[in-house]
């Protein structure tokens, strides 16, 4: 079957990605039994760009991230093109889930969490002091060095999210998938999270997909917005998507330059 890919920058049919590196989500579909969650999803994700994924409840946003991760059965392919535009196989993917279930009374600290997650890496055979230094270095990227000895259960929702983000940066991924927490993080925590993510995109030239529910923060920080509802309904820069009649129809209210009028 011949399928045309539409590059979301130019709208032109385009098989390659024109920026330095790119992940192509190609013809993704997921069904659960008879439930068609989404079909024929085609998106190009470029490095150095923050792509916000929006859509109504149950639109399949989290499911799409899990399909990209290869955690659930799906149709379609994932292609990664390196800086030279060559197909280099699967991208290294970092993932921050919407929430983490754990026993709040656990004595596990942030440092312990890093130790457990990274212990199977050969490069991790190093002195305790060096290990601590490496973890601090990663935590610094998310402004969380001060949390290194904190118990996981004593972290606020926003702090935990930043620690998980730091874990997802180790090793530095080609594609970073973030599922914005819908509860447990206050507005201030959410703003800090977006600022850090936005900064990381520039400093590490990261390709990021962020599931977002806060349209103001999307309008402020995202480079691209993809509106998902059974398939990709709308794809463009934030202003375009928030002005689009299809966006207004789906959310059934005023969405103006990122103002969510629910
Ligand atoms: N494991 C599963 N088995 C069956 N159905 C599922 C499963 N996971 C998700 N679904 C269904 O798939 C649809 C999409 O769910 P998903 O969580 O991806 O939506 P979402 O866009 O992330 O929603 P929200 O914004 O509410 O988090 C929903 O109808 C959901 O009930």
TrEMBL record:
<dbReference type="GO" id="GO:0016887">
    <property type="term" value="F:ATP hydrolysis activity"/>
</dbReference>
<keyword id="KW-0813">Transport</keyword>
<keyword id="KW-0547">Nucleotide-binding</keyword>
<dbReference type="InterPro" id="IPR050153">
    <property type="entry name" value="Metal_Ion_Import_ABC"/>
</dbReference>
<feature type="domain" description="ABC transporter">
    <location>
        <begin position="23"/>
        <end position="254"/>
    </location>
</feature>
<protein>
    <submittedName>
        <fullName>Metal ABC transporter ATP-binding protein</fullName>
    </submittedName>
</protein>
<dbReference type="InterPro" id="IPR017871">
    <property type="entry name" value="ABC_transporter-like_CS"/>
</dbReference>
<dbReference type="GO" id="GO:0005524">
    <property type="term" value="F:ATP binding"/>
</dbReference>
<dbReference type="InterPro" id="IPR003593">
    <property type="entry name" value="AAA+_ATPase"/>
</dbReference>
<comment type="similarity">
    <text>Belongs to the ABC transporter superfamily.</text>
</comment>
<dbReference type="Pfam" id="PF00005">
    <property type="entry name" value="ABC_tran"/>
</dbReference>
<dbReference type="InterPro" id="IPR003439">
    <property type="entry name" value="ABC_transporter-like_ATP-bd"/>
</dbReference>
<dbReference type="InterPro" id="IPR027417">
    <property type="entry name" value="P-loop_NTPase"/>
</dbReference>
<keyword id="KW-0067">ATP-binding</keyword>
